[in-house]
Amino acid sequence: MFKGTRFLLPLLAAAALGACEGTDSGSSRISVRLVDAPGDFKEVKVQITELYLQGGNESDSTSGRLTLATDTAKYFDLLALVGGAGADLVKDAVIPAGTYSQLRVRVGSAYVVTKDGKVYATPGAVLPAGMTATGTVNLTSGKSRASGYKVRFPGEGLTVDGDTRVVALDFDVARSFGHVAGKSGQVILNPQFTVTNVQLSGGISGLVTPAAGVAFPACGGAATDVTHFVATATGPTTLSAKAQADSRYKMAYVAPGTYTMGVAPVGYANGDSLKIAATPSVPSVTLASGQNAVVDYSVTAATCKVKPAG
């Protein structure tokens, strides 16, 4: 797994189109930033073809629909959007005041490159020069793909009334992309999103240190180290963050609430899996609005489960 450095990628700065049921005559502004939780790939590129707010009747995709952005060609580099980095999907779009129940996200083409260099792409995806797909990315949930994947705002929804809001849309690579299904030549993509009001969010970070005598084993056909450690926080939403080369991890845009800290196993394209046992400095943390917490980990064991031959 790889992470990039912080960068901003403006996609669209435009007024929203349409109207939201139940709004008053005022207007507000909204910005949406795309962030990511890590996954076990060398590259992950995805197109977000449409983003819209949903108000009124949630069961009707056209009720209170307010389009924020449309784009059919731009790929987002998801592995660069971690550790506090993000890309601007929408910047200061003008929207009617009111309460919105959810975002809906339409996903277009996608392609991934595994650690061993294999390329999987959705049918018809435009790939960089010199790159050829060796398998397919199968995007699940045809109905959701057509109408947009639902991403519900926490609590009673997002209420705006003449103010400016910034929200973070988390595209979780680790949970969205399934491993190669046997010998089918496919990677399964079932997009998993969460959304957080950045203005009310905090963060969780910490240092990962192996205990005396603990070493990371080879797994997935290559050496592993602390950068294969994935911390998790389970609460109002489930978050994850991968340790960097300096042994530190960081979860940004964490909504208020109580989170139980844990460690995620890591799966590899060849079927191997790395299981890490670690003790957090505290078993759980409770964050108030805008609060940050530090949770360090002591790694007590790391083992590789090798996929049986055949």
Automatic annotation (TrEMBL):
Q: Does the keyword Transcription regulation apply?
A: no
> Which keywords accompany this UniProt record?
Signal
Q: Could you tell me which residue ranges the DUF4382 domain spans? A: 28-191
| Name of a matching Pfam family | DUF4382
Q: Which residues form a coiled coil?
A: none
Q: Matching InterPro entries, A to Z?
A: DUF4382 (IPR025491)
What is the annotated signal peptide range for this record? 1-19
Name assigned to this protein: DUF4382 domain-containing protein
